[in-house]
Amino acid sequence: MSETQTIQNSAEKVSGASILLDQVTKQYPGQAKPAVGGLTMEIPAGSIVMFVGPSGCGKTTTLKMINRLIEPSDGSIVINGDNVTGMNGDKLRRQIGYVIQAGGLFPHMSVAANIGLVPKMLGWDKDRIAARVDELLELVSLDPKTYRNRYPKELSGGQQQRIGVARALAADPPILLMDEPFGAVDPITRQRLQNELLNIQAELQKTIVCVTHDFDEAVKLGDWIAIFNEGAQIEQYDSPERILANPASEFVENFIGSGAGLKQLTLNRVHEVEQQQAVTATPGEPPEEIIARLEEAGQQNVVILDSRGRAIQWLSQRQLSRLQVISDAADPDLPLVNEQSTLNDALDAMLVASTGAALVAGRRDVFTGLITVNTVMDAISAGQAAAQGDGDAPVGLNTGAIPQISDNGNHNDAAAAGSTAAATEGTAEGRP
Ligand SMILES: Nc1ncnc2c1ncn2[C@@H]1O[C@H](COP(=O)(O)OP(=O)(O)OP(=O)(O)O)[C@@H](O)[C@H]1O
């Protein structure tokens, strides 16, 4: 790939680019063993791939070789079919978003200047940069008027992290690399940021490679999870469902830890299951009219929505019958979940509120319906059954070149035989 080349976006809806690590090795000077040893790995366009594994196993080194912040000692990085190993590193990095813990923002630059950094380097004019900054602030759920002129120290940890994501997305790169992006925030903010990332991804379909220490985070965010052992040896590279249902080795079993059954709950998100419609009303509506509507619909409870369609109260017929007027006060204890929340989060919300259902909010927190305990239980059983099937995981191995793809789209027999032989010899092998 020449220095003037740019990464081409994939065809169709996916704006992400495919990445292939082709027999990549990193040997740091003075180290006995390579930090990354002969790693071959497909990262499909438009998917989220999570890197997990014990400390020092080579996750960050592998990530940083993709944008060549670390130069591989051997092997190549191929993006959308183009070998980028010889490309100018700075130019490559302007086309790959990079997010690190706590956002990695420049403290002396305003939010707008931080976000506009790469567009400015790319020579965009001022108006275009300003419009892009505002658009990205909206995307990460921060009001542009309030935040564009602030400095990083005037932001919470979660807000800094959002700006970090906005900055990485500024020039609309096809690839986003994230190194422990949510490591420095509290668990609730972390959950919210994870949900936001999933919302953004649903819209943008980037290729996201993310290093995390948190296996639950990997399960929640990943389309695919790569579990590495020392030297970036792949122990298993597969869907979260299948890793949980069929760990490839004792190492993976230990890594998942106890409670694999419960982790299944984090596999499904609220938007993937059916929601029940609810009777809704607005503040000021006469309670007796609402009761009449509930009776007609054969329902017990009504959801009160504010002027922006957000749920603020959830009242039973009995509560309604005692009220003169429906106020516009928001009940702080509502069992509220987001469409991107996991079923685990939804069950939690129901348990905390001692209710058999939770209220679901979609984009901009608009109420979309109810999720019930029964729906959650059914989804868990269905998920467990589905995880038993064989699927088409991307290739990940440390045993040589990527197997050739035959005309019918399968990896050919010779390569498959090679993989099997390697696996029998006890070499790390990503496909079960
Ligand atoms: N600049 C360097 N020089 C020499 N050795 C290094 C260098 N950077 C990393 N290493 C070594 O390479 C190995 C892999 O490090 P890397 O940071 O990629 O691991 P990691 O899996 O990301 O770890 P962690 O989860 O602790 O962040 C480690 O043994 C580390 O000590």
From TrEMBL:
Domain ABC transporter, first and last residues per copy: 19-256
The source's domain of life comes to Bacteria
Pfam families xrefs: ABC_tran (PF00005)
The ranges of region (Disordered) come to: 403-432
Please provide the record's keywords in A-Z order. Answer: ATP-binding, Nucleotide-binding, Transport
Instruction: Give the matching SUPFAM superfamilies.
Output: CBS-domain pair (SSF54631), P-loop containing nucleoside triphosphate hydrolases (SSF52540)
Q: Where is the composition biased (Low complexity)?
A: 414-432
Please list the GO terms describing molecular function.
ATP binding
Would I find Nucleotide-binding among this entry's keywords? yes
Q: PROSITE patterns under this entry?
A: ABC_TRANSPORTER_1, ABC_TRANSPORTER_2
* PANTHER family the record matches: OSMOPROTECTANT IMPORT ATP-BINDING PROTEIN OSMV (PTHR43117:SF4)
The family line of this record is: Belongs to the ABC transporter superfamily.
Q: What is this protein called?
A: Betaine/proline/choline family ABC transporter ATP-binding protein
Where does this protein come from, organism-wise?
Answer: Kocuria gwangalliensis
Q: What is the lineage of its organism?
A: Bacteria, Bacillati, Actinomycetota, Actinomycetes, Micrococcales
